[in-house]
């Protein structure tokens, strides 16, 4: 897969057409580079056939995003377990039925591991480290939303506490969000959008939901083509839920005053 200033171009032109459509910028770039390649590959009368060249459109893309800022250890601190459990339960009770973007069983398994003494947090920056950052960031967003529905938090403290969890979430994900593409990242962006739609960050909410939609499209979550749907039934169902949430939030924000 290669990238340029306009779009991302995969090595398979069929994939581009299915995911982005024939009228997309990527389709235009694909047709242009294909035509240019044919011209360049034709033998030049001034050179031998063995020297015929070809247009190289692909540039290497790092599969592992690089950190763009230092870790903030304080952002990884968890609230007291009783409070944390309360916030998470409020999220499942009040938000999850409307925006079922997270898989509860998988999420709660990871959540339980956080309280285990064997769970380490200092890794070497491998792929699992990125996933752990995404989960920790998502968890703080869940705290930010859930604490606003918690009866244990005084009404006058809810906004400030939610804002604190939101800022922690932003500090935890230390990678460039534009270099990351995964289902878990889409989930994090959507949960962030759910939180932001009830805050003063109206434009930020609009932007983060738009980014979630673009990332979901790049993963093919908007398609029912069998090729882009995982064979696992759970993954199929989560793909549908995630894309459904993308559409619901996009329509909701579009109807809200900026």
Automatic annotation (TrEMBL):
UniProt feature, compositional bias: Polar residues: 39-50
TM segment ranges: none
Region spans: Disordered: 39-60
A single GO BP: DNA-templated transcription
Any GO MF annotation of the entry: DNA-binding transcription factor activity, RNA polymerase II-specific
InterPro entries: Fungal_SecMet_Regulators, XnlR_reg_dom
Occurrences of domain Xylanolytic transcriptional activator regulatory (ranges): 89-255
CC per GO annotation: nucleus
Keywords: DNA-binding, Nucleus, Transcription, Transcription regulation
PANTHER family: REGULATORY PROTEIN GAL4 (PTHR47424:SF3)
The protein, known as: Xylanolytic transcriptional activator regulatory domain-containing protein
């Amino acid at each position: 897969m290669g990238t340029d200033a306009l779009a991302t171009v995969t090595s398979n032109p069929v994939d581009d057409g299915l995911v982005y459509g024939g009228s997309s910028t990527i389709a235009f770039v694909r047709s242009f580079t294909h035509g240019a390649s044919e011209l360049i590959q034709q033998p030049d009368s001034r050179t031998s056939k063995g020297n015929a060249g070809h247009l190289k459109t692909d540039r290497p893309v790092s599969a592992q995003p690089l950190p763009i800022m230092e870790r903030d250890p304080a952002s990884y601190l968890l609230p007291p377990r009783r409070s944390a459990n309360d916030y998470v339960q409020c999220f499942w009770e009040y938000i999850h039925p409307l925006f079922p973007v997270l898989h509860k069983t998988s999420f709660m398994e990871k959540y339980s591991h956080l309280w285990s003494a064997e769970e380490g947090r200092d890794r070497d920056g491998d792929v699992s480290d990125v996933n752990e950052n995404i989960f920790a960031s998502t968890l703080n967003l869940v705290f930010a939303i859930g604490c606003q529905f918690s009866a244990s938090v005084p009404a006058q403290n809810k906004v400030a506490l939610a804002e604190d969890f939101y800022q922690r979430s932003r500090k935890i994900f230390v990678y460039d969000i534009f270099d990351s593409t995964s289902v878990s990242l889409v989930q994090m962006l959507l949960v962030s959008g759910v939180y932001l739609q009830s805050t003063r960050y109206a434009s930020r909410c609009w932007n983060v939901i738009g980014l979630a939609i673009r990332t979901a499209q790049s993963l093919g979550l908007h398609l029912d083509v069998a090729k882009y749907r995982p064979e696992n039934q759970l993954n199929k169902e989560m793909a549908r839920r995630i894309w459904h949430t993308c559409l619901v939030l996009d329509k909701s924000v579009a109807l809200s005053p900026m």
